[in-house]
Amino acid sequence: MSSDLRSHLGRARGLGSAKSGVHHFWVQRLTAVALIPLAVWFAVSLVTLSGADYAMVRAWIGSPFVMVLLILTIVIGLHHAQLGIQVVIEDYVHNDGAKLAMIVGVKFIAVFFGLAAAVAILRIGFGG
Predict the structure, then answer these.
(1) Which InterPro entries match (predicted)?
(2) Which of 16, 70, 75, 99 would be a feasible disulfide site paired with 93, CB 3.0-4.6 Å?
(3) pTM, whole model, 2 decimals?
(4) How many domains does the chain have?
(5) With b meaning 16 or more CB within 10 Å and e meaning fewer, what string describes 85-116?
């Protein structure tokens, strides 16, 4: 006799059709929590830099600490957005082919813009 208290149907269903819903849920919540201090830091930085000239902003971005925080903010923000858009697509797009194409497209766009932003930050930061 098994110590599992679920019914036969409950054991047969396993994790449901998505197979990863809990992981997706937690990653979205963790990225949201990570974005709170990053967004506050970014907003305070923008207010502090208001009125600054190009050279001052470029010097600010050139700080290794600032470069890392900017890249983290962009990467985590894009990942969080991609996860949220994926949920909307899964809930409201009923054609499986269109659903897959849209999810892959959103992931591609997030990766593309994340890499483009990281390259831009690094080029500005290193004076290129």
Answers:
(1) SQR/QFR_C/D, Succ_DH_anchor, SuccDH_FuR_B_TM-su
(2) 99
(3) 0.81
(4) 1
(5) bbeebeeeeeeeeebeebbeebeeebeeebee
